């Protein structure tokens, strides 16, 4: 279960534990906001220039006065698509708090206390009826509510029909037509999903499917024969010519390794550390994650078997008669002992599906590719199947971000244009291509999360260890910055929780994340250990600015770091600095010796 410091909301069965009450009435921290004393609060508006992703308690918004983290039962919920209209529970406006709290920093607390006191903040009972969403234009994170989106879509559909038929509301009395408008014929389990408006690419922007896609589906190595090498422009400078030649040489090095009958993983890791060309990235990732076997003789059969296994799992998970592992089948999924009422009679875990259906539309909302229906349905299936196969953690907010680099890289294998973030509607591709991209993304996501699953189980011990290690590592690398953060009562859990939970995907672009993951996969423990040193290098990079800021300025800055214009060169510099820190401190416990009154964390090996 996630803490309120920036993690996601756990959708798996909740653990019973004693709720520790936190007195927030006098808390000067901007993360706590008391209820307004005004009985008629002003209507919330959203900043049209602000881009936000999945909902985090304080991670995506810079305007702290719009934040709201409260106790169990008052967590803002995205409404269901059922008919709203119930009055808002008066208890929402009865929480204690002072609107004019001081601006001084909160009392220093250890991250362990911080987590233990807020473990239940994301626990929400099924009290959707208590909110009056009819008048809501958005939730507390600036995102439109589902019911609002549905109303807008229905109004637009009615107006469009009126223009065609010449009369307002013509045909609206036909229940069958309304049903067809609300529900698709895709056998998707999102029965209550409101009608959505998806981007429509211009025909001139459409990306071209490789004619040889069937051969690539059979064996990814066949794509190595279709590489389009960069050409040297006529008026290129000598520097540009050298860069292009260097890129061609690097592509050929990967190609020679990948075409071997038995691929030497050690050589591939060494070559991939400094970046993988996009022409060979998909196959390289699958090999480094041990999804594909290194033997070319076993590759085709293994790929066919794993893809079939995933598609069978999808059919079981979304079967109205039962979920994965249901009925006491092999492995016994989390639904095997779940009553039919909690599953809504649709063969799915309603709690898990509800949260996934909320988070997926919020995934990379600034990228056109993730706005298409085919993309969102695919991500939903991947996340749901993974969640029911891993009942110890279930689905947790943040995992939806981690699947996107895989999905984007694997989809690009079948497209001639490497830039697929715009003008590329996956719904126009053959179903076999989408199934392969989806299955490969699922298995690679599973491989990644197997190494960091303790980040997402109850109490998140993996994240706790990494946050503690980051604090101690920062004290050794930049003692001045560490002292300043401590003097301002900035607890590392307040800003680095998201860094560990989402692997910095909220701080840098997807393209830069893909480049960073090249190195992570080349490392033996890239996601579980090397990422810590990347976070340390990332924090120290802003040291000169942070030491001049007070608590609130620090938190605002760290939640919106100026990385929008970063390129691969910036990522490579960050990775190089992280490698230096790892070389100096990994395996050494000397840097863990902090102040005498600080409890050492000996469970994390650096």
TrEMBL record:
Coiled coil: none annotated. Residues 122-140 have a biased composition (Acidic residues). Gene3D superfamilies: putative rabgap domain of human tbc1 domain family member 14 like domains (1.10.8.270), Ypt/Rab-GAP domain of gyp1p, domain 1 (1.10.10.750), Ypt/Rab-GAP domain of gyp1p, domain 3 (1.10.472.80). Residues 321-334 have a biased composition (Gly residues). SMART domains: TBC. Residues 90-104 have a biased composition (Low complexity). This is Rab-GAP TBC domain-containing protein. It comes from Humicola insolens (Soft-rot fungus).
